[in-house]
Backbone:
């Protein structure tokens, strides 16, 4: 695989819902750093106490369904991840023998789920391609939403519409991101997603 170093590129940027990388096949084998955020940055997954993440009941549901992703998608493996008060960081490994990092012009924007093919007669909302990263995350978010709203009547749980992704291109970047995920609770006081963060 050909890689580039991305040491600090993801820090503080996952709040912005970026579009998927143009022409990248998000169903191709590879390592993907993903961040999924709760709508309006509501801290429903628990809290950070003494630099450790303490999960709420809702946070435990989010963790449970994250761990179950490979059971629903056999081509997916999980690497380092953490449930934070209002977001989730995780490394998802797609291994479906379709090759690593192929650039494929599909004629559509998967991030927006809107067809852009010139021969389409009607512009319509379409589902992400089967086996893609977007399909995995959509399924995860849906399972969490249904279960949380069914079991916790006192809140109306919602995710942000999109999610942040970063394609991991080398071992150094992989290890940097793993350390970033592991140390996330240590940096919660200054995290942009923490509405009560300490601003120097």
Residues:
């Amino acid at each position: 695989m050909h890689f580039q170093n991305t040491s600090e590129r993801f820090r503080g940027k996952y709040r912005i819902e970026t579009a998927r990388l143009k022409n990248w096949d998000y169903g191709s084998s590879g390592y993907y750093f993903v961040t999924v955020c709760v709508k309006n940055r509501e801290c429903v997954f628990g809290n950070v106490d003494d630099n450790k993440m303490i999960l709420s009941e809702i946070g435990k549901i989010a963790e449970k369904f994250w761990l179950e992703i490979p059971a629903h998608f056999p081509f997916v493996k999980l690497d380092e991840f953490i449930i934070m008060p209002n977001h989730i960081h995780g490394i998802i490994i797609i291994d479906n023998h379709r090759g690593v990092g192929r650039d494929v012009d599909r004629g559509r924007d998967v991030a927006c789920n809107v067809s852009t093919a010139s021969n389409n007669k009607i512009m319509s909302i379409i589902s992400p391609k089967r086996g893609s990263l977007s399909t995995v995350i959509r399924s995860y978010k849906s399972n969490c939403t249904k279960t949380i709203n069914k079991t916790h009547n006192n809140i109306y749980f919602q995710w942000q519409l999109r999610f942040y992704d970063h394609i991991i291109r080398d071992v150094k970047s992989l290890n940097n991101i793993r350390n970033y995920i592991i140390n996330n609770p240590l940096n919660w006081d200054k995290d942009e997603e923490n509405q009560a963060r300490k601003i120097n």
Notes: Residues 30-104+131-190 form a domain with the Alpha-Beta Plaits fold (CATH 3.30.70.1290). The mean pLDDT is 77. The first strand starts at residue 30 and ends at 37. The radius of gyration is 17 Å.
